[in-house]
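Hi C.,

You asked whether I'd gotten around to modeling the 105-residue construct. I have! Everything is below, sequence then structure, no commentary in between.
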Amino acid sequence: MNTRNQRARGRNRREFGKSCAIAVVTPFWARSVVAEEPPKPKPVLPTTVGAMMEIIRARYGKYLTEDQLKEVQRGVAQNVFIAEQMKKFKLANADEPAFIFQADV
């Protein structure tokens, strides 16, 4: 007998199906085991927002009401949060901006 027939006799369809299923499921299972506990997100840096609001109050405080200052603070906090999210996205040196060039013809 040749070696191919010997290998074929050692494994039947059911065993082959099980091994294929395990091969498909293993990467997903490994990812779920590793990612069981997601990292806790850092809160928006209150010191950064506070420092920016102090500058805004010093420069424009006499022109803004308290409601307007609260609205400005929400906008500053949102911009700081977005900036922190952008910092988390790693770029390589060769990454370029995605833009579409259209010539004005």
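If it helps when you're writing up: The first helix runs from residue 3 to 10.

Thanks,
B.
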